[in-house]
Amino acid sequence: IEAGIDSMDYSALSDSAMRENGVELPKGKPLVVMVARFAPIKGHRVLVSAAGILKRRGIPCHFLLIGYPKDYTAEQFQRWFVEGNLLDDFTVIDRLLPRLSALLSRCDIGAITSLGSETVSRSLLEYLASGLPAIATDVGGISDIMSRGEFGRLIRPDNANALADAIADLLADNNRRLRMANAARNYVHSHCTWEQ
User: Fold this and answer.
1) Measured distance CA(157)–CA(11) in Å, rounded
2) How remote is the C-alpha of 46 from its chain's centroid?
3) Which of 28, 89, 95, 158 is most buried as measured by Cβ atoms within 10 A of its Cβ?
């Protein structure tokens, strides 16, 4: 059985839908989002390391971690941010959001840093449906969708430098991100909705 999503959840979203989430997004910086349960297999530490690399390079961006506590808590992330001087560069959301799609629609890049465990990634489908270029690790079934590079970049797992490079490359090319966003939406609405 192939995975799918409800395409109506990712149609044009109003500011009121955004306010339902109760989340204030920083202004003036590109937003990189990661939606995953808070567990080591999902590679959050790799994203935090990549954020430090980007900060040292002087590339401004803000990171959103969205998920539910499993092996990690928001307090564990805070310790990592303090260690890496990244407290102002991350927002952690550890609760259910009534309109996740509204939040995704305001981001610039979706990240999947899994070290394993992915068959079909629902987060990847949600990113693509929201028009987010994705940077994803080459694990499980992710490469079935990402291998041609139409929707983003496929990278090796557990490689913070490769992740930082991929984020920097996409942030530097707005036209490329727009092309990927359009291709991503078209792909999901043609192949991955419940109506298909």
Assistant:
1) 32
2) 13
3) 89
DSSP E strand boundaries for 18-124: 31-35, 62-66, 90-93, 109-112
Q: What is the pLDDT of residue 193?
A: 56
Contact by Cβ (8 Å): 73, 38: yes
Is the CB of residue 29 less than 8 Å from the CB of residue 62?
yes
> What is the pLDDT at residue 5?
47
Please choose, from the candidates 104, 128, 90, the residue with its C-alpha nearest in 3D space to the C-alpha of residue 17.
Answer: 104
> Cα–Cα distances in Å, from 124 out to 9, 134, 188?
15, 7, 10
Tokens of 9: 């959840």
Give the span between the Cα atoms of 146 and 150, in whole angstroms: 7
Question: pLDDT category, 16, cuts 50, 70, 90?
Answer: low
* Residues 187 and 5 sit within 8 Å (Cβ to Cβ): no
